[in-house]
Design goal:
Keywords: Methyltransferase, Restriction system, S-adenosyl-L-methionine, Transferase
Radius of gyration: 36 Å
Strand order of the largest sheet: 3-2-1-4-5-7-6-8-11
Strand content: 15-25%
Family: Belongs to the N(4)/N(6)-methyltransferase family.
Number of helices: 25
Catalytic activity: a 2'-deoxyadenosine in DNA + S-adenosyl-L-methionine = an N(6)-methyl-2'-deoxyadenosine in DNA + S-adenosyl-L-homocysteine + H(+)
GO biological process, one term: methylation
Number of strands: 19
Pfam families: HsdM_N, N6_Mtase
Structural class: alpha/beta
Shape: elongated
Length: 697
């Protein structure tokens, strides 16, 4: 795998960044990338064309040496337009444009842009670059930008696709930080992509093999996957097989990322790639302004899928696409819908929906998936909620094969821990009913020079360590502290609602007397009766009126579980305030009106309520599922053991919950530092602080 010259890439990125800094004051920070990314793409395409023209010029000159320079140039241009997979019909280059009359610069530059073949013009349209040119001219920045890039060496001969990808992504990271965006986009290091490709075990193809990414960004996942297959090919014949049989498929929501991806594929002359602009999580509607999933047909099934979906992206609310996504609720997302502030599991369900079915008779077919997530999809969502239901669906279908815990600080835009999920619907017999967890958090080395938040990297030795354990870990008797095999049911649990009787200091069931803080209504008391299912006693201080001359009474009564609160309370009030109610209703002859007056009197009382009841506690217990036992046996045993109080009743949830807790499974106790060592560190920090304060004087 090609290694990266980080100092070289840093220098190039910084040089490009200088042109963005020249836009300050004329463009807003979020507009910088609208200027810079397209001109990089244009210059890279131009470098490819210049190289093609030089090669063609040599070939034509060798055959027709008598051609004059003007005739040669005309013939080469004709061949370019007719034969090259992209072209520019004009004689312009960025360098020639920069050298011409400044008054003609805008017209000539626009002619140069329009001179590109349609496939390049489509890319520029997705950058909306013609509007950007208008802004550049208006702000007198077109000439400086062209001068910045007219000789910049961005051709494949000087900069590989891998290196160009790093430059794109480092610039996108900087633009994101400069504009204050938090889009959740975390570009994937190439060593991580290579690890994903190796874990997918994509063979050298002997027939059509499709690779898909529903959030392909600038195309890194797809391109590196194919490049790795080419690098691994042992013979020219195998390389031709990769080129002939492997097709790339993807979708990207960001127009600028999509444009970069298309340009990259164009330079590689990958004619078979199918990459679309749009949101892969929603249905495609040609009449809608926002394109949806254009790879959702019955035949859009893929052999291998890999992706790094954006972390924590909100898909609900006024700025989301919840209504559109829910159109898939009964089909693609039938397992469940995650919370609207994290669409990670929508991406996973989208990929699972595109798996090829396995032929039951031959065992042929099927698909494999590698996807990167943060920690949220592992355990977010309680039993019965969307995320848990999606995990239940995946595990009960036995699609989850393995999870690899990666080191932190691997990504450019975030330092968090991440996880590779491996899924397949064609598990071999040795994997069936099992999930492997690999703790690879210590498999890294420090980057010689940090790229944003990327301070760690996975070297070849670390990747080989992970791959070796994934391959060998399924064998019976294999032992490694960093590899654990689980049954799919090991992640299942019961959520049991339990009511138990709290005990007092004497360990006897407690009965407590306390103020009743809720509204003293029939609805609330009915809930108390249902919950306690036992006798409730009330002592009520009831007062009528709001002056010093008001009247009051102390009312005590008891309710049984099946008693009517309105009847008992009403009777108690009538007895306590018999004289007052007689005086109130004496002038009223109509029975209905008399009852209304009594009810109004009762409702108007000011109450201070104290009640006495059994001290019941309601709680939820999360109990591991036991596939070999009966819930009616092991749930009561668990409750008796863990709660050790009188159990009044319990109720299991109608379905199992599922969560995966890798940190728990690989927990390693680390003893605290000795007090002497902590004290030494404290005094060292104290001395450092004193030195800093001294420097401020």
């Amino acid at each position: 795998m090609l290694s990266l010259n980080k100092p070289k890439l840093d220098n190039l990125t910084n040089e490009i960044w200088k042109s963005a800094e020249r836009l300050r004051g004329k463009f807003k920070a979020y507009e910088y990338q609208n200027v810079i990314l397209p001109i990089i793409v244009i210059r890279r395409l131009e470098c490819v064309l210049i190289q093609w023209r030089e090669k063609m010029r040599e070939e034509v000159s060798g055959k027709r040496a008598a051609l004059k320079p003007a005739e040669l140039a005309k013939l080469v241009k004709k061949l370019e337009v007719s034969q090259s997979h992209f072209s520019n019909a004009t004689a312009h280059t960025l360098e020639s444009l920069a050298a011409e009359d400044p008054t003609l610069l805008e017209d000539n530059f626009r002619a140069y842009l329009n001179g590109f073949s349609k496939n390049v013009r489509d890319i520029l349209d997705h950058f909306n670059y013609h509007a950007t040119v208008t802004q550049l001219v208006k702000n007198n920045r077109l000439a400086p930008i062209l001068n910045q890039y007219k000789r910049l060496a961005l051709g494949p001969a000087q900069l590989s696709n891998l290196e160009m990808g790093y430059v794109y992504e480092e610039l996108l990271r900087r633009f994101s930080e400069q504009s204050g965006e938090e889009a959740g986009e975390h570009f994937t290091p190439r060593e991580v992509i290579r690890l994903m490709v190796e874990l997918l075990d994509i063979p050298t193809p002997t027939h059509h093999t499709s690779i898909y990414d529903p959030a392909c960004g600038t195309g890194g996942m797809l391109s590196v996957a194919k490049e790795h297959l080419l690098d691994r090919a042992q013979t020219d014949a195998e390389k031709r097989q990769v080129e002939s049989y492997v097709t790339l498929h993807g979708q990207e929501l960001s127009p600028s990322n999509y444009a970069i991806c298309r340009a990259d594929l164009l330079i590689k002359q990958d004619q078979e790639a199918r990459v679309f602009l749009g949101n892969s999580l929603i249905p495609h509607d040609k009449s809608s302004k926002e394109p949806g999933d254009q790879l959702a047909g019955a035949n859009d099934r893929f052999d291998f899928m890999l992706s790094n979906p954006p972390f924590g992206v909100t898909w609900g609310g006024k700025d989301g696409y919840e209504d559109e996504a829910r159109r898939y609720a009964a089909t693609r997302y039938r397992a469940g819908m995650p919370r609207t502030n994290d669409g990670a599991l929508l991406f996973l369900q989208t990929m699972l929906a595109k798996m090829k079915p396995v032929d039951a008779a031959s065992g042929q077919g099927g698909s494999r998936i590698a996807v990167i997530f943060n920690g949220s999809p592992l355990s977010n969502g309680d039993c019965g909620q969307g995320e848990s239901e999606i995990r239940r669906w995946i595990l009960e279908n036995d699609w989850l094969d393995a999870i690899v815990m990666l080191p932190d600080q691997l990504f450019y835009n975030t330092g968090i821990y991440t996880y590779i999920w491996l899924l397949r619907n064609e598990k071999p017999a040795s994997h069936a009913g099992q999930v492997m967890l690999i703790d690879a958090r210590r498999q890294f080395e420090k980057e010689p020079k940090a790229f944003g938040n990327k301070r760690n990297r996975i070297a070849d030795a670390h990747r080989e360590w992970i791959e070796a354990r994934y391959r060998a870990g399924w064998a019976e008797g294999f032992e490694d502290a960093d590899v654990k095999l689980f049954r799919t049911t090991d992640f299942a649990y019961h959520k049991v609602g339990v009511v138990f009787w709290q005990t007092g200091a004497d360990e006897q069931p407690a009965i407590i007397t306390e103020p009743y803080e809720k509204a003293f209504t029939a609805a609330n008391i009915a809930k108390e009766q249902a919950f306690h299912a036992s006798e409730l006693s009330f002592a009520v201080r009831a007062r009528h009126g709001d002056t010093a001359a008001d009247i009051a009474a102390d009312i005590a009564f008891t309710l049984q579980p099946d008693s009517s609160f309105n009847a008992v309370w009403g009777q108690a009030v009538r007895e306590a305030f018999a004289a007052e109610l007689a005086e109130l209703t004496r002038p009223i002859t109509d029975t209905r009106e008399r009852n209304k007056a009594v009810k109004a009197f009762i409702d108007g009382l000011q109450l201070a309520v104290v009640w006495t009841h059994r001290h019941y506690i309601a709680d939820d217990e999360y109990i591991p599922f036991d596939p070999a036992g009966e819930p009616a046996d092991y749930i009561p045993a668990f409750l008796a053991r863990e709660i050790a109080k009188p159990i009044i009743r319990w109720q299991d949830s109608p379905q199992l919950g599922y969560e995966i807790l890798p940190n728990k499974y690989f927990y390693r106790y680390q003893p605290p530092k000795p007090a002497s060592e902590l004290l030494a560190e404290f005094w060292a920090l104290e001395k450092e602080a004193e030195g800093m304060l001294e420097g401020l004087r």
